[in-house]
Amino acid sequence: MQRILIIMATLAMACAGAVGQLQTLTQSLDNNNVSAGTAIACNFGAPNFENAGTNVMRTYNLPNEGVFTDIEIHAVRFGVDGATSPGGAQDVTVTVYLDPTPGNPAPIIDLIPLHSQVFSVPDMASGIFTATLSTPVLFLQSANADIVAEVSVDNGQAAVEAFFVGANTAGETAPGYYMATLCGQPQPVDISTLGFTSHYIIDLEYMAANVLRPGTGDDLVTLMGVNAELPALANSRTLTVGDVATMTHLSPSGSMVQTGPVFVIGTILPTVGPTIPEPFAGLYVDAANATAIVTGSVAGIPLLLPAGGLTYSFAYPGGLGGFSVYFQCIISTSVGVNGILAGSNSLEVQFL
Q1: What is the pLDDT of residue 140?
Q2: SS3 of 257, please?
Q3: Torsion angle of alpha carbons 4, 247, 310, 305, nearest 10°?
Q4: Which residue ranges form the domains of the chain, and what is each CATH number?
Q5: What separation in angstroms does the CA of 313 have from each of 158, 228, 310?
Q6: Tens digit of pLDDT for each residue in 141-176?
Q7: What does pTM read for this prediction?
Q8: Using the 8-state DSSP alphabet, how is residue 11 labeled?
């Protein structure tokens, strides 16, 4: 049974569960050679060709790409066809999104940003740049959602900066997408529909990964952010005194929205000691040490999962050093895999 796409991993996840070696996922028949002058970018023209704001994207659906394992994305690799700046380098933003509606990533507002990072790219006439992500992004293979990799270059007119994401005409196995508001394309569009025959080089570098407590295999995830971070998926996270944790329980494709009462169970156990039991397939609860954090109702009214997910925060005041709490979201619903309930991944929070 297909497991729904899960959103983000942290460095802790990478240490705990990653297996195998880095591999490259590409849609370019030649992903190593940039053909000079084939790149398309919105720019201000001669003499400096400063960028006017350009976003280029590729979408990857893992089963369609022949990938049937869970993966961690460690880097986005892209071509450069002319980058010039007075300072010798310029900022380029790389973003990885979840697209819950596979295919064309438009409308952009529906994409869920999973990781965004600014990279300083040195001036070059032509070449390949590998943007290694500070936080790996984890996906469980599914046909129900796409990975979208975006390379974004801001308006460079004031700084006299020009940047063209590299391309060639060797062919591709799936379309690339282009967006540039100042050039009349406020939403991503298949670049071939604009009459161009070149193809952007935007690859993913990934490795196989392992989620330790994946849940029941339903469209339901538990995510956590610490302080200013976006909520992210991990096997475990750590909190020190004064940290603020933000928990999000989400149905990425929406199939669990409004389907039944929502419970969040927290099980407290020593961080070093017996592992949390699995008394029922996909549930991770030690009844003797568990408490209901979300109880399924508010003032007697059933609490149903909202379309945007259920989010709450708490500060760690101290006093739990050496202990972990395992958070798992459970929905009482007949639409889940087992027809009784749906359980998210179980996320361990280690308290220092």
Answers
A1: 65
A2: coil
A3: 40
A4: 11-208 (2.60.120), 221-351 (2.60.40)
A5: 41, 12, 11
A6: 666 788 999 999 998 888 999 999 999 999 999 999
A7: 0.73
A8: H
